[in-house]
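Look over this one:
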Amino acid sequence: MTILTGLPSYILSVAFLNLYIYYIVTRLNIHLNGWYSGLSGLSIGFIVIVTLSGTLPKPC
């Protein structure tokens, strides 16, 4: 039952990660001078995703 309840949140986090990376990439393409803020935002998003995936059930 934990897999059934954990799967939607896992899919949601993966979809959010893909959208976030796409947003950062397009923002970097438009504003190349703001590359540092984009990279720092990406690293923050990566830390958030790692923290979220740590609470999700591991696929066996």
The mean pLDDT is 70. The first helix runs from residue 2 to 30. Helices lie at 2-30, 35-55.
